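Continuing the series of single-chain predictions for the mutant panel. This is the parent chain; the variants come on the following pages.
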Amino acid sequence: MKITLNGKKIKCEEEQTILQVAKKQGIKIPTLCYSERFHPKSVCRVCLVEVNGKMMPSCSTKVKERMVIDTESQRVLKARKINTELLISEHKEHLTQTKKHELCVLAKDVGVRQTRFSTIGKIHNPNEGIGIARDDNKCILCGKCIQACEMQNVNAIDFAYRSYHTKITPAFEGRIDDSVCIHCGQCILACPVNAIYEKDSIKDVEKALKNKHVFVQTAPAVRASLGEEFGLEPGTLVTGKMVSALRKLGFKEVFDTQFGADLTIMEEATELVERVKKNKNLPMITSCCPAWIKYIEHFYPELLNHVSTCKSPHEMFGAVLKNYYIENSRIKKKNAVVVSIMPCTAKKFEAQRKELNKDVDYVLTTRELARMIKNHRINFNNLKEDNFDAPLGISSGAATLFGATGGVTEAALRTAYELETGKDLEILEFNQIRGLKNVKEGNIMINGHDLTFVVVNGLHYAKELLEQIKKGECKYDFIEVMSCPGGCIGGGGQPIPTTKEIIKKRMQALYVNDENKIIRRSYENPAIKLLYKEYLGRPLSEKAEELLHTKYTKRGI
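Parent structure:
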C-alpha cells in the first residue's frame, strides 16, 4: 500500500503500525509505554501522530491505504509535551533532568524542563520484598510491569481501583513476598521510571567488609554485561577488570561461580544418567533458575519430583566454601561471609530459603555491583586485568554457557555422554539449542538410547511443557527452563536497557568465552577432580547429597 509520511509518499506492508513504518524510514517517534515484547496498550500517549487530521497513537494504529501522516506537526509536538508533563506530575521526583530513566530521557526529547502541573499527592507506602521493591509514589501507571508479569504467566500484579486512586498492586494489596511473584525481575527491566527495583543489599555487604572475611563469587553472565554500566559495548567481556574492581572494594578472595556450575554439571549429569537407567521421574527438569523453581512450587507442585535435586551453582559454591574450603583454612566459620554477584533478582529470594542453610549470605545484582564500584570512585575502564583465586576460580568453558539459554543442557550433555560411553564428544557445540528461539529441541544417541531434550526461555512456553507432563504426553528426557528471555544474560538484575539485540551480544560473548577456554568439559576441571578426591568421593555420594542437593516445597496460589 501507499501512504504519505511527513510529506513523502512511501510504500509499506499491511499489518504494520505507524511506529514500525516510521522506524524503518529512520523517523524517531518518542515512546514510553511501548515495548517490542508486549502488545501495545497506548497508555502514555506520547507517541501521538497526526493521521488525516486526527491525533492517533502510532504504537497501535496500523497503516491503511492513502493515509496522510505527520509525525512532527505543531499539534503533535504540543500534545506530546503536555502528555509528558502530566506523566511527570504523577512521578514523585519532579526534577527529571537529574534522574536517569526513560521518563527523564523522554522529557528532554520533547523539550520539557519542568511541569506546570502539581502532583495529586499519593500516599502509598513502598512495598519491599526479599528480592524486589516497589514505590507507588513513582509509578506513572504505564502498565509495562503488568505486561511483563503476564508474559511470564505469573500475573502477580494488576491495576486496582479507578481514577485518581488507581494503583498497581498484588492481590488484596498484599506484600510482594506473600504473592505468587517469582522474583524474576522482568518487571524491573520493563519499568521506565524506577518505580520497581531490586532490594538493595549494598549497605549490608559494606558493613560485612569492615569486620568479616568476605568471599565473593561472580556468575558467568555478569562478565558479559557489567561493562555496559561503564559505557562499554554490550557483550564486552570484562572478567579481569571485574576481578580487579572486587579486590579494590575489599573482598578477601574472589572466586568464580563457574566452578559451582562445573560442580552442578557433575551432579546433574550423573542424576540424569541414573534417572534414564531407572526410567524414573522423567523428564528431569533443571533446577538452576530459582524463579522457575518458585513458579513450579506455586502452580505445579505435583510435578516437583521431576525437578533435579541439585542446588543452583552459586548455592553449591556457597556450601563448598563454608565447609570444604574453610575446613582447610584458618578462617572461622562464624567470620565467613559469602557474597554472590548475580544477574538475577530471584537469587536474593533463593539465598533466604531455609533449605539452603544460609550458605550464601548476600546477593548483589550486576547493577548493584556497578553502583558500588561507582560509589567508591573506582575508574573501572582503566583497571588492569586480574585473575580469580585458585582453586575455586578454575572453571571450564561448559560452565560459561550457564549464562545463556541452552547452556545448562549443552554443558550437561558434554559430561553425560562421557559418563555413559567413556568417550569425549567430538563436536561440543549443540547449535540446535543455541540462540533466542523460545523453544529449542534436539536429541543425542548415548549407548543406544536416544536422549531427547528441550530448552525453553521465558515462562510463556514452559506452561505447555508442564501440562504435557501432567497428561503423560511429554516426549522429552531432559528439560531446561530459564525464566528470563535469553537466560541469565537477560536477568532482572542486569543493566538497563536489556533489549533483544543486547541479549544477543551478551550471548555471543559467552559462546566466544567457551571457545577460548582450554578446558571445555566440566569433568576435565582439575579443581573439581581434586574436590571429589579429597572431600566428596563421587557424584551423588552421601556427602555430595548432603551439601549439594536440596528439596522444594509446595506454595499457595
